[in-house]
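pinging the channel bc i need a second pair of eyes. not urgent but kinda urgent?? the chain im working w is below, pasted from the shared doc
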Amino acid sequence: MTATRTGGDRRLFRDGREFVGFGSARVAPPRRASLDGFLTVGGLRFVHDDARARTRVLHRSLSGDMPLTNPAGVLHRAGAPMRLTVDELRALNARFETQTPEQILRFVKSTFGPRAALLSSMQRAGSVLAHMADAMDYALDVLFVDTGVLHDETLRTRDRLVASTRNLRVITLAPAHSFAEQTRADGVLYLTREGQERCCDLRKSAPLHTVRGRYDALISGLRRDEGGARAKVAIFALDAEMNALRVHPLANFTSAAIDRYVAKHDGVVLNPLHAMGFPTIGCHPCTTPVRADEPERAGRWRHLAGVEYCGINPTDRAGGAQDIDLDDRYAAALRTT
């Protein structure tokens, strides 16, 4: 794919086809892409709903040759911005508190369609959600951040997910610099608490931020029974940094419930590290096995007392967004009474 600008229009060329006027891809600097998901025609702004995943799974890195648009996409006239507040989510959360993860995913599918994405680090909970979405024929993007220091088992799990699903498109996001380049510039950051926060920001959060604006809802596998900051995770929450609704369909799922789901469904793609004593999995320098008598996240940043999270999930950070701005076409679905 190449991108050129002619007469103020963005033109994308892929497989000999020309897409004129799409503002949904900005390729700058080279090898980095950002998506905002909008098309402007004759001064009118439209939301581009891409139906590409209905054909076959596409797996490309945003730093490589990834198809960014699809001529078969559906266009909706973009409405006025709607300010959605955390107070307004209370009724929505109450409505779905007793719903199953599949019911929550169906709501996301009917409300957001391809303007939603699943965040997965190729751990158990994300794999269960991917299986649920694929089983309901949800043409969903799966966002995977390759930090450059992941276990080989995790990368192979991603590749197995790509090969085994019919409706999901796995998109690999990568940091701006290799780990070696980062270390030459800043040293080994993860040895101190302050350095760990910066390292996780550079290698996990920053790559995710490159797709800010492309999605209005981000699905993840956080569960209340993980404890800590996640003990009170809401099914629906706000993400100010991504200006998106966060959706946690497994909020009420326990670890045992995940085990039962996996046992019942042969097609769930599991990271083999789970069977090697890793209940949670991150970058290999900062992830260790966990004993049966330890908390689930004891193996994360074991060398740094008190560190439990990387910060990519707003629920894990102090404070929290009070509002975000979404297209008002979602008002009827989200502002329930």
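so The helical segments are 89-96, 101-112, 124-135, 152-164, 179-186, 193-209, 255-264, 331-334. and Confidence is low (pLDDT under 50) at residues 1-77. — does that match what u expected or am i reading it wrong
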